[in-house]
Amino acid sequence: MTTSLQDQINFYVEFKERYFEIIRDFGFSYQQDCEARNYLFRLLNQKGEKWDSESILRSFSDLFQEKKIVLIYGCGPSLEITVDYLLRECGKELFRKCINLAADGASILLREREIPVEAIFSDLDGITKVEFNYPEFFIIHAHGDNIGKMSHFKEEILMFPNIIGTTQVEPIDTILNPGGFTDGDRILYFIRALLQPHNTIYFIGMDFNEIIGRYSKPNLTENHQGTPMKLKKLEYAIKLIECLIEKMSNEIFFLNSKIASNRFKYLTIKEFAEHLKK
Question: How far is CA 203 from each of CA 102, 110, 156, 241, rounded to the nearest angstrom?
Fold first, then answer.
């Protein structure tokens, strides 16, 4: 019997212990997380029979067969500098050869620079309604305090064809739990079962330091000092990526970022250009 892609992506059993550690540490509500999951489930069901989560996942999975390089964009302060440098030195053709996966508001920069985006992963607090016009796929995350955001984007969610829902509690039906916590690290958790041996992953704008990039929220005009809550979330993101890297065979690099972990591999932009030639 063939295992569905939904089953392959669901890692709640593996991630459960870490999830309860996180909600205890932050004081988050398990019940509210369940309510958000159920709200998203009901909302996606309104899309009708034409919406088929498994078929969408298979189309998304095909991307990793077709292209070798996976670029994952976070909202750190190095995002804009790095993307603009690559545009100047390599042109848009570089990005067309890659799978471009944006964490939340990083997608706004990519849209502004007219860089193709295959998928946006978002809990909806860093984007505008315009971003729903841009990617091929949209992965929406439901958690305890974003029911209002899902309601705000209800029309866009119902109209967008290739959409997948995720949760951080038990998965139900089409709502998946790939593991992960922040939008950035959750991308890696989501795609790990879809990766092919030839895929190499490069993180751009995943800085994990005290300065938060201006693309983390739509109303920001400049980088700013992270709050204690935000910095603690980034500490968890580091731990979660460290844990996952140990289980993966694909090469993973952080591009043009300050060192946040001695277990990560880092590249300068020039070193990245050399990697592309291999």
Answer: 10, 14, 28, 11
